[in-house]
Structure formats: structure tokens, C-alpha cells
Design a protein that fits this description.
The protein is about 10% helix and about 35% strand. The protein contains 10 helices and 53 strands. α3 (about 95-105) crosses α4 (about 150-165), α4 (about 150-165) packs parallel to α5 (about 200-215) and α8 runs parallel beside α9.
């Protein structure tokens, strides 16, 4: 907080408009626009605009179809879907990435000048229009053409090229997976495969899902059906949006519940099915308030950010326009500033403090970490100074629990407070400047995302008030405001260097640094005492950590990386349904600092608290505890890692010393030396023979489900929080064990094929329930089980296992040491996992081996394998595979 002279007065101003402030008096003298004493912090209340208007990557989303030559102009649209022929981008397998770039530059020429971004969907078959098969891929059979290994390998290679061309292209908003099936919708309807389904087979889901994950680090990826690609963190394109005949699709999207981090989009289909609540056309939907509200209900429940086809409405029809305005105001994000406080008088070279409260009144988040800028404007509107806040707008979430009767979310959106402390250059001339806020597109660092406030200047800035540099402000007259809807002056650039504004400041001050988040429930953290992970639908990672305090429960974040020693801004995301709770925060085991956490209004409502921490260079620990009472529940922490550039563009160093450290008949374990990065390494991507197979947050990885007696080659890449990826390491080769002439007997490798918890690779799970996360969930190819003195699952093992000597449980724990927290039953023997194996569970995946004969297991009639977790412990484990060897 700024230092305040006791003679300074705190000003609370209403909406800053010319009429309201023409007679503003300072110092109680009765003299207009005359400062008597140095002006202290000024607080202003802002008003929400009633306009609907364009904003990037949200709202009505027209389509450019196969034979369209241009993007049609629509009143509320800055985002357009683009259907693209496969053969426009690649005909022969030898075609280069440059061919894709050349096509993009031609097809999208000039769209940056209109602030337009595209959503590409590449298609091979577009019924009624044509088929666009590349050379060398067999086709002609409408079913079997989609099942060949040639197609699979060609698509994987092609996706890699798309990533090189589009992952850093600012014209691309996000990617629709496309490619496979009719219209690129991942189905072959009305035809069916031999198993009676028309959906993309699991083997293709795995191949394409892995390829898109490896190719796109900076762009979100969407898939057509919520029941496909369930092992991948993708968004959904519901192309039968709100259609009663496909309510299952919408409900599946709601159940998938990935909207906080992944984009949901879609298309209101008017060419089939029950149109009774859609009116049969865009005008039929938007011209009826009941039809409009019906679609809005689906938007709010699915947290959808953009919609196509319905965008083709008649804007000149007043009743249709009213419906379009109502829908645009809730479709996607809508950021409203409620209040702002700023320093009224700043000496050159001194600190200007700025704080504002913002709430998201729309249906979805903004999904990219675009920077928020404060600027001081000259009297002619040009920028005299600018600097960046250290905040992450992806955390400005909408409400949850839509109520169609009250037309509101049951859980209101959180109020987000953003603070900045900016060092004003000593050379800035004395005078009165207008303080304005804006959200920038990093492609050119121009104002782009706009706040929905009546305070608005053409060009994308929201004026807050007048600041005096070296003097009191001469007045608080902000002049006239512009219309949000009618301003079409915004744009972005295809080339962008480093941010050229202020890079100084602390406590959330200016600079183009990067914010790195650490989830409370991460397996890298240490939970002790009664601290436990629990599901949290409103939390960023879908989970939170509670029961910190009172019973000795503590939560320690590990691996908090700082490039240099110094003071950093830490934002704690927490939940508190009580009055203020407190917690003690200790950095690197040092003296604790007490923090007070105000109520957030409920245990499912997240809030944030900012504080400063002194970190050492390298990895640090931050521990939360409370010896005398309960702390709040914790969602995550976000570290402002600072830096003077406009974003982290430096890739980590290449992983070194990659080696095979263990093998079984079906798995190979790798280890390597840690990479370094200017900000911090967040994980490693592992590739088998050039194909992505998984990610590790440690310097070890085990590849499972392999064939016995077979050699495999591996490389590893490091990545950071900004999505920068290193070059591949040197390759290393490992060979699986011969397996005694046979292969492992896999009970389940939890790849959701068969689907958990109905069946497994050996037969049938007899039950799975009682966990904090119900029957457990499949997460990144492993079964995640959250338990709190409850939970069990079992599988019938009806065959003899006499040919096998060991039971292998590949497992890791959130804290480590979970081997004594649950019992395992097999072949008439019941023991804890630790007693069965004499081994321990760690925070990295590990094969726990159980000698069947030594433990007296009846291998001829094993009966049922069970695991039970009702022994007075709380924690989280991930089981990657259960097998007999």
C-alpha cells in the first residue's frame, strides 16, 4: 500500500463522466478544479454497459465453407470457423510445412486488420461437396477406408505439420480436431463399423489425440463428441447445439466438465431433428424470446463461448436483433469492472498504485493468458506511459449452477481483485494524465479484449480517472465516451516483438513477466496430518486441498521455481465458506507469516489473496498451516515470476543423460538429468520412436503395455509454463524382458478400453465405489482414487494364475507412503500393500511387486482381487496398471 499523509483525503467518485464531474471540488475550499493538499488514493465506481459488442474468440461465430472466397461480415463476430480441404494443405506426404503456411497467408490475408481470428477444421470428406483424400492413402470403401494403418500414420504426420504452421499463428483462435470421418466430425454415419458403432475407433483416438497434444502447446483443441478422446484434455464442439434430439450430447459435455480450461463451442443445427424450440432458422430462434432463452439455458449450462449457424440471423429485424443482443451478452466471457482505486498524485520516479475489481458476467472464461495493461494518456489520447499488471485473466471465471427460472447462476461469479505497483519514469513530464485499463493481444501488444463498461475510449481502452504526475490532477473530467459496439478500429499484428512498456515494479507491478501456477492437489506437493484432496467442480484443476490446520494438517507446495533470488508476488486461490480464516505461510522452512483469508461466500466459490514472498534462486517450498484453527481450502498458488520481456519465449535446455533404468516384460522405465529454463521447467514429453507417449513432471517415466522381448527407442523433450518445448534429447534404446516365454497377464492398464469401471482387460470389475471421486476417474491413462476412510474396488479373477509368479501394481501417491493406507485381498490372503510387497509408494510411478507364492496366494483359484481403503486414512493414489508376470 502507498504511504499516506494524515492530511490526505480518500476520494470516492461515482461513474466518471463529464457531466457528473464538471463541478468536482478538492480540499473542501469550494474552488472548482483546484488542488489544495496532495491528493491521496482515489476510488471510483464504474457502471456496466448495456451494449452487446464484439470481443475476440467469443460470441456469434459464422462459418467460411469449402467454396467460400471471403469471410462474411457479421455485426457481433470476431471469430470464424473455416472448413479446409485436406488437399489444399497436403497432397503428397513429402509436402512441406511451408505449403500450409503459404495457403494460410493467402486464405487469411488481412484478417488481422479486422481483429478477426479463425477456427480451422480440416476435412477429408464433406458429404455433398467432395472428398479430398491425399495421394497414397487407400480409399473407396466408405467404412474400411477409415481403418487403415496408412491413414493413421499419415494423419499423425500431418498433424505435426499443422502444429508447426498454426500453433504460433496469431490468426488461429483454436483448432477443431476434424480430419476423421464425414465433415471431419469423427463419425461415419449413416455407415457403421463392424462393432456396430459409427464413432472414431479408440486406436485412432489415441493416435490423433497424442499427435495433437504433441503438436499444439499454444492453441486449444476441440473434439466433436464428449464420449470420445476422454483421455485427453480437449474441449467440445457440439455441432447439434441445443437440439432436443441430441440432448445426450449436451449432457455429456456438461458431465465432462472441462470448461474451466478447455473451450466449448458449437453450431445450432437447423437441418434435422426437432425444431420446436429452435424455430427452424436463426431468425426463428432469435425472434422468439422463449426460443432465445432456451438456447441461452444451454449456453450457460455448458459454458459455451461461441456458436455457429445461428450467427446468420437478420440483424435488420428488430425482434431478431433483440434476441441476438441478449445472446451475445452472455455467450462467452463478459468482463465488468466494478471499482478501481489509484494514486491521485505520483512524483516522477515514484510508485503509482492501481487496483481494480473485475467480475465475469458471461458464460465462459477467456482461455489464453493475455496481459492486462495500465496506461497514462496525454490530453490528445496518445500513450505517455504504459505497464503490465501481473495477473492471469484465465482465472476470471463465470458463475456456476445455471437456474433457468431466475435467469442467473446459483453460484455467482467471483469478484477478482487485481493490484499493480508501477514505477513512473523520472523523465515523464509533470502534468495531468488519464489512467486507462486494457487487455492486450500479445500479437502486437494492442488493446483487444474490452471491458463491458460505459467508460470506453475508441481503440480498446477503459478510462478510470485522472492522475497527476508531480502535481495534483487538474480535474477528473474524462470527456465523452465511445460506443463499444460501433468501434471497429481494433486490430493485431502478425509479427510481435517484446513488450515495449514498463518493466519495473513489485507486488504485481508492471513488466511483461510470466505467471506460473501450481495446483494444490498436485502429486508433487506434500500433504501431512489430516490435509486431504477433494473434488471441486469450481476449482481450476477440478480438485482442492482441505483440512489444513486444527488437526495438524499442512499443505506444502514443492518445486516453486525462481530464476533469481528476490521478492515475488504470490496469488493464493482459496475457498472459504466461513468468516475470515487464517493460515501461516512458511517459505523454505523459515519463519511463518500469518495471512488472513476473507470469506469467499461459499465452499465452492474461489477467491484470491495476494502477498509477497522472498524466494531463493532455484526450487523453493511454500507451506501452509494453522496450529490453532482451520485454514481455508486451497485451490492453487500463482507465482508472478516477473521478467522484463513481453512473455517467455525461451525454451528449456535439452534433457541429458537419458537412460533405461528398469525393464519388465511389458514396460521400460527411463530416467534423465533435469533441464534448466529461464523461468522454470514444468514437465517432460516422452516419445517412443518419434510418437508421443506421455508426459512426466519428474525426471523419470515408465512406458507400459509393451510387447515382451522387443526393442524400443525413446527421446525426451522439456517444456515450460509458456509452452516452449526444447529440442529432442539423444535417443536411447531399451528392450523388454522375454517374459519367460510368455507375456504379462494384464488385469487393467486403465486406458479406458474397456471402459472403467464396467469391465477390464481380464474380465469384469465386480464393484468400485465409496471414493471421494465416486468410483475413481481415469486421468492421463491411470486410475485416480481419492479416499477418506472409504472406497473399494474388486475384480473377479476366475482363471488360474499358476503360470505367473508376481502381481505387479504400478502406482504413485500424492504424498508418498500410501502403501499402508489400504488393504489388498487375493487368493485367500489379506494384507496392506506394504506388507504384501515390503515396498513403499512414492510420488513417482513405481512397480510394486508382490511374490504370490511367498505370500501364500492360492494361484489355482485366486477368486477375487480387491483393494479397500477404509482404514482411517485420507489421500490420493494413481494406479497405472495391474498385471501378473
Amino acid at each position: 500500500m502507498p504511504r499516506r499523509n494524515t492530511m490526505k483525503k480518500r476520494r470516492v467518485l461515482p461513474l466518471l463522466c463529464a457531466a457528473a464531474l464538471s463541478a468536482l471540488t478538492w480540499g473542501g475550499t469550494g474552488k472548482v478544479n483546484q488542488a489544495q493538499a496532495a491528493v491521496g488514493p482515489i476510488t471510483v465506481q464504474l457502471t456496466e454497459s448495456q451494449e452487446a459488442f464484439k470481443n475476440p474468440i467469443m460470441g456469434f461465430r459464422p462459418s467460411r465453407y469449402i467454396n467460400d472466397a471471403a469471410f462474411p461480415d457479421r455485426e457481433y463476430s470476431d471469430i470464424y470457423k473455416h472448413y479446409i480441404r485436406y488437399t489444399d494443405l497436403e497432397t503428397d506426404a513429402t509436402d512441406s510445412v511451408q505449403k500450409i503456411k503459404d495457403w494460410s497467408n493467402s486464405a487469411w490475408a488481412g484478417i488481422e486488420n479486422k481483429n478477426v481470428k479463425v477456427v480451422p477444421r480440416v476435412v477429408i470428406v464433406y458429404p455433398g461437396t467432395g472428398e479430398f483424400w491425399p495421394n497414397g492413402v487407400p480409399h473407396g470403401d466408405p467404412v474400411n477406408q477409415w481403418l487403415t494403418d496408412t491413414l493413421k500414420s499419415r494423419l499423425v504426420s500431418f498433424i505435426g505439420k499443422l502444429g508447426q504452421a498454426w500453433d504460433n499463428d496469431p490468426r488461429v483462435a483454436f483448432i477443431e480436431l476434424g480430419l476423421y470421418g464425414n465433415w471431419g466430425e469423427n463419425h461415419i454415419y449413416p455407415n457403421k463399423f463392424a462393432d456396430g458403432t459409427d464413432r472414431i475407433p479408440l486406436s485412432f483416438q489415441t493416435a490423433l489425440g497424442d499427435a495433437y497434444t504433441a503438436a499444439f502447446h499454444n492453441k486449444k483443441v476441440l473434439v466433436r463428441y464428449p464420449e470420445t478422446f476422454t483421455a485427453y484434455n480437449f474441449g467440445i464442439q457440439w455441432d447439434s447445439f441445443a437440439l432436443p434430439d441430441d440432448a445426450a450430447g449436451g449432457n455429456g459435455e456438461i458431465s465432462r466438465d472441462t470448461w474451466r480450461t478447455q473451450i466449448n463451442s458449437g453450431e445450432v443445427a437447423y437441418d434435422w431433428g426437432d425444431q420446436s424450440q429452435l424455430g427452424g432458422s436463426p431468425d426463428g430462434t432469435l425472434g422468439s424470446s422463449s426460443n432465445t432463452n432456451y438456447v441461452i439455458d444451454w449456453i450457460m449450462n455448458t459454458h459455451t463461448s461461441s456458436l455457429g449457424w445461428i450467427s446468420d440471423y437478420t440483424a435488420s429485424n428488430p425482434s431478431v436483433e433483440a434476441g441476438a443482443t441478449a445472446m451475445q451478452k452472455v455467450l462467452g466471457y463478459r468482463f465488468v469492472i466494478n471499482q478501481a482505486t489509484f494514486s491521485g498524485n505520483v512524483s516522477p520516479g515514484g510508485t503509482m498504485n492501481v487496483s481494480f475489481q473485475v467480475v465475469n458476467k458471461g458464460s465462459s472464461p477467456f482461455y489464453y493468458n493475455w496481459p492486462v495493461e495500465a496506461s497514462l494518456l496525454k490530453s490528445d489520447g496518445t500513450v505517455a506511459w504504459k505497464g503490465l499488471f501481473q495477473t492471469d485473466i484465465r482465472n476470471w471465471l463465470p458463475g456456476t449452477g445455471w437456474n433457468s427460472s431466475t435467469r442467473s447462476y446459483a453460484q455467482a461469479p467471483a469478484v477478482n481483485t487485481v493490484n499493480g505497483a508501477f514505477t513512473i519514469p523520472s523523465g515523464l513530464p509533470n502534468g495531468t494524465y488519464t489512467l486507462a485499463l486494457s487487455v492486450l493481444d500479445p500479437a502486437g501488444w494492442k488493446p483487444s479484449v474490452r471491458f463491458a463498461n460505459t467508460n470506453y475510449y475508441a481503440g480498446g481502452r477503459t478510462p478510470i480517472g485522472k492522475v497527476g504526475i508531480g502535481m495534483d490532477p487538474s480535474d477528473q473530467n474524462l470527456g465523452s465516451f465511445a460506443s463499444l459496439k460501433s468501434d471497429n478500429t481494433l486490430s493485431y499484428s502478425l509479427q510481435s516483438g517484446a513488450y515495449d512498456g514498463s518493466t519495473g515494479g513489485s507486488g504485481g507491478g508492471g513488466g511483461g513477466g510470466t505467471a506460473v501456477s501450481y495446483e494444490a492437489e498436485s502429486a508433487a506437493n506434500t500433504l501431512a496430518g489430516g490435509a486431504a484432496t477433494a473434488s471441486c467442480g469450481t476449482c481450476s484443476g477440478g480438485s482442492k486441498v482441505g483440512y489444513v490446520g486444527n488437526n495438524g494438517g499442512t499443505l506444502q507446495f514443492n518445486g516453486i521455481n525462481a530464476t533469481n533470488a528476490g521478492t515475488y508476488t504470490l496469488t493464493v486461490s482459496y475457498l472459504n465458506g466461513d468468516a475470515a480464516r487464517s493460515a501461516q505461510m512458511s517459505v523454505n522452512g523459515g519463519a511463518a507469516t500469518s495471512l488472513s483469508f476473507p470469506s469467499t461466500g461459499g465452499w465452492s466459490t474461489a477467491g484470491t489473496l495476494q502477498t509477497s514472498v522472498q524466494l531463493s534462486a532455484g526450487n523453493n517450498t511454500i507451506k501452509f498451516s494453522n496450529a490453532t484453527g482451520w485454514a481455508p481450502d486451497f485451490d492453487k498458488i500463482t507465482l508472478d515470476v516477473g521478467g522484463g520481456s513481453g512473455g517467455d519465449a525461451q525454451a528449456p535446455s535439452v534433457p541429458s543423460n537419458v537412460a533405461v533404468t528398469a525393464t519388465t516384460a511389458s514396460s521400460i522405465t527411463l530416467d534423465w538429468s533435469a533441464s534448466t529454463d529461464n523461468v522454470g521447467v514444468t514437465g517432460y514429453e516422452v516419445y517412443r520412436g518419434g510418437t508421443y507417449v506421455g508426459t512426466s513432471t519428474t525426471t523419470a517415466f515408465t512406458d507400459t503395455g509393451l510387447s515382451s522381448g522387443t526393442s524400443y527407442s525413446y527421446t525426451v523433450k522439456a517444456k515450460d509454463a509458456a509452452g516452449n518445448v526444447s529440442a529432442a534429447s539423444s535417443a536411447v534404446t531399451g528392450t523388454t524382458n522375454a517374459g519367460g516365454g510368455g507375456t504379462a497377464l494384464v488385469l487393467d492398464n486403465f486406458d479406458n478400453s474397456p471402459a472403467w469401471p464396467g469391465t477390464n482387460d481380464l474380465g469384469k470389475w465386480t464393484g468400485a465405489n465409496g471414493f471421494v471421486n465416486n468410483a475413481g476417474v481415469i486421468e492421463n491413462g491411470a486410475l485416480k482414487l481419492q479416499y477418506n476412510n472409504a472406497g473399494w474396488f474388486g475384480s473377479d479373477v476366475t482363471q488360474s494364475i499358476a503360470g505367473y509368479s508376481k502381481l505387479i501394481v504400478r502406482i504413485k501417491g500424492a504424498a508418498g507412503g500410501e502403501e499402508s493406507q489400504f488393504h489388498l485381498i487375493l487368493g485367500g490372503v489379506e494384507k496392506t500393500l506394504g506388507a504384501f510387497s515390503g515396498n513403499t509408494v512414492t510420488t513417482s510411478y513405481k512397480d510394486i511387486s508382490i511374490d504370490l507364492a511367498a505370500n501364500g496366494v492360492d494361484k489355482a483359484s485366486p477368486g477375487q482381487l480387491q483393494m479397500s481403503f477404509w482404514y482411517g486414512s485420507a489421500g490420493t493414489v494413481w494406479i497405472d496398471e495391474i498385471r501378473f508376470e
